[in-house]
Amino acid sequence: MTNDKGIIIKNIYYMLSYAFQVLKQTNYEEVAAEEFEQAQDLFAAILAKGTARQLKQGLYREYITQRETLFVMRGKLDMPKTIRNKVQRKQRLACEFDELSENNLFNQILKTTMKLLVQDEGVNAERKRALNKVLVFFDHVTILEPSKIQWSRLRYQRSNRNYEMLLNICYLVLDGMLQTTEKGTYRMAAFSDKHMARLYEKFILEYYRQKHTYLSEVRAAQVPWNLVGENEEAMIRLLPVMQTDIMLRLNDKVLIIDAKYYGKTLQHQFEKYSLHSGNVYQIFTYVKNYDKDGTGNVAGLLLYAKTQEDIVPDCSFNMGGNRIGARTLDLNQNFKHITEQLDKIAEAYFGG
């Protein structure tokens, strides 16, 4: 089974299917049944299927401002340009008008990504043919410079909600894998740790939300600071936000999980391996501030994605009445075993 940085490629698909439930729909069944040599091959398969489905519903269109010189007035008249036309004896009106167009940022990103995947050696011939079939319908859509894409301009609403998963895949490809060569061309590299870390967090959160429905709360919650006495609002604003990755609750018991995806799960100093000090301080702070009454009902867990290191953390401590632990989740195994590991974590703390 082929892997990317110690992760079976197929497991990236399963993780994505929890992050984006649309991948569990029937038209993606063929993708779920296939094996992939490279991450970009997987992303190409998803985009080919998803875009073909979108074409049946119609590509998203939005109003784009057009500027043209016409014989008949349309929209708003550009007076200075029209006067220049008159001076040059051109009997045309300079007009500015809005027109529904498929040549918008959503479709431009989609086309740009598919074009790059078609050119990549890591995508197999069958997937390239599937992408080329859908690219025929993007003739009037502009290709963008990947490094100049303004991702923050994307705004999702009812009419383009179907694009959310597709453009997140595009983001993983263009922002997470694409590298520029010395010749100015593009090539695909391994899936970046930064983007894999976000997917790892999202997967764990959504897995517990979808599969452990007995829990009374599953969310990425903020922990309030346990401040004593009078505190000025201006001073409180100086404190950093304590944002958890995953918070699980069953009645009065709470488990805070901090998902960590690093190249190395342990730090090595003075011939000794230890947990990353910053990680321990962080989870300890979350737990102690959330358990402001000192009940001991709040626990914390550092959940590292397992690396190919020989020594990995598997420990639990009682720190001032609260359980603080560190474990690894092996992503380079059958996905069923991954979910079993997550189930055992919840069962160990909440019972079941």
Automatic annotation (TrEMBL):
GO-annotated biological processes: DNA restriction-modification system
Superkingdom, taxonomy of origin: Bacteria
Keyword Lipoprotein among UniProt keywords: no
InterPro entries membership: McrC, McrC_bac
Keyword annotations of the record: Endonuclease, Hydrolase, Nuclease
Name of a matching Pfam family: McrBC
UniProt-recorded name of the protein: 5-methylcytosine-specific restriction endonuclease system specificity protein McrC
Gene source species: Candidatus Acetatifactor stercoripullorum
Source species taxonomy: Bacteria, Bacillati, Bacillota, Clostridia, Lachnospirales
